[in-house]
Design brief:
- The protein has about 130 residues and is an alpha+beta fold.
- The chain has a single domain, classed as Aspartate Aminotransferase, domain 1.
- The chain contains three helices and five strands; from the N terminus they run ααβββββα.
- It has helices at about 15-20, 25-40, 110-125, and strands spanning about 45-50, 55-60, 60-70, 75, 100.
- The radius of gyration is 13 Å and the shape is globular.
Length: about 130
């Protein structure tokens, strides 16, 4: 399908991803929380590290990622520009991608972010 970001190889659980979280301290713990939700979306979720951060896929089609920076974590969506975002969590102006910035000690609408992850998963399933 056109517009899908495809990655090879992907696997059910990549041990390098758990090591990645451990190397990132407190921000890694935040990233792990949200990546765990991505992992749990369905039995067809696969994962890989690409460009130095964990990516969740359905088969080889990427739908979401996490990445850590100096003071925040991004939870990103490869087709985020097409996701419904009634609480306006998503940031970015690119043609396709959007992300949510998570900062330590700052509240986040967990229910809305969970919904975005679940919606991104369902969306990519329909596209592949």
């Amino acid at each position: 399908m056109e517009g899908l970001f495809r990655l090879q190889p992907t696997m059910r659980r990549d041990p390098a991803i758990d090591a990645w979280f451990k190397q990132r301290g407190e921000l890694g713990a935040i990233a792990r929380q949200w990546f765990s939700l991505m992992r749990g979306c369905g039995p067809d979720v696969r994962e890989t590290i690409n460009d130095g951060h964990p990516i969740a896929c359905v088969g080889d089609a990427a739908f979401a990622y996490v990445n850590t920076f100096t003071a925040h974590v991004n939870v990103g969506f490869f087709l985020g520009a097409e996701l419904e975002d009634p609480t306006s969590l998503l940031e970015g102006t690119g043609k396709r991608m959007r992300h949510v910035k998570l900062r330590q000690n700052t509240e986040i609408n967990e229910q809305a972010l969970t919904r975005l992850i679940e919606t991104a998963y369902k969306d990519i399933k329909m596209r592949v």
